[in-house]
Design brief:
Blueprint lengths: L15 H14 L12 H8 L3 H14 L2 E4 L3 E4 L4 E3 L8 H7 L2 E14 L2 H7 L6 E13 L13 E8 L16 H7 L6 E10 L2 H7 L6 E10 L5 E10 L3 E3 L6
Parallel strand pairs: 3-10
Antiparallel strand pairs: 1-2, 4-5, 5-6, 6-9, 7-8, 8-9
Length: about 260
Amino acid sequence: MFFENQKLDKNSSVPLYYQLQNIIIETIKRNKIKEGAMLPTEIEISKIFNISRPTVQKALNNLVTKGYLHRIKGKGTFVTKPKITQEYTRFIESYNEQMKKSGLIPKTKLLEKKVIEADEKIASKLNIRAGEKVIKLKRLRFAIHVEEEIISDLNKPVLVTTVYTPYNLLPSIMNYDFEVFSFYEVLDKNNLSVKRVTREIESKNSDIETANILEINEGDAVSIITSIGFLENGTPIEYSESIYPGERNKFVLEISR
C-alpha cells in the first residue's frame, strides 16, 4: 500500500488537497513510489483518505503541473521527475538569479578553486597564451522548490559547471566564497561585467566521473553548454563548461524575426 498509515488532518487550516500533495511527495521521497510507478485511481485515493474525488483531482492536477506526475490517457497517473526550466540559453545572468526568478532556492557546493596554467584549449577560448595563469572554479549546483524542500530528487545536483578566467584580470577572485557569491556577481562588483556571450549546446552520454558527481547512471543523457563571456571591449573574461543531466533539465530558446 503506497499510503499506509498516512492520514489527513481534517481539523487543520491547511487545505486537504495540499495535505494530500505533501503526503504523495513524502511517499516519493521515501522511495515507496518510484519513478514510473502508477498511482492508485482517484476513486481509490478518495476512499483511502475519505475525501471527495474533486479534492483528489486538485492535488493530482497540481502535481502534474509541477512535473511530479504525468497522465497517460486510458492507463493512469504515473510518477515522474520534475524538470527545471533553464533560461541560461536566453539571458546573461547568474545561476542564482535564474533560480530565484523561477521560484527556486539556489544552492552551490564548491568542488575546486585554484590557479592553473591554461592548456591549448582554454587558452584559445580566452584568447591568451598557453601556459598563462587562469583561475579554475568548479561548482555543483542545486535547486530546491521553496514549498517542497523535502523532495529527495530536488536535493540532487542540477548541474556541474567549471569556469576559467584569466588570473591577471582579477587575481582577488581567489578571496571570494563561491558558495555564497555568484561568479557574475563578483565580476560586477569589480567592474568586469559580461556584456556578450557565445554559447554552444551538445548532447552526450555521461561518463562515469560526471555520473558520480551528478548522481546519475553512467551513459545517461546530459546536455553540455560551453560558454565564452566577453567584456564590453571584447576581451574574453570567462570560458565555462556546464553539464546538465537530461532527466532534470529542459531549456528555453527564444528566436525573433
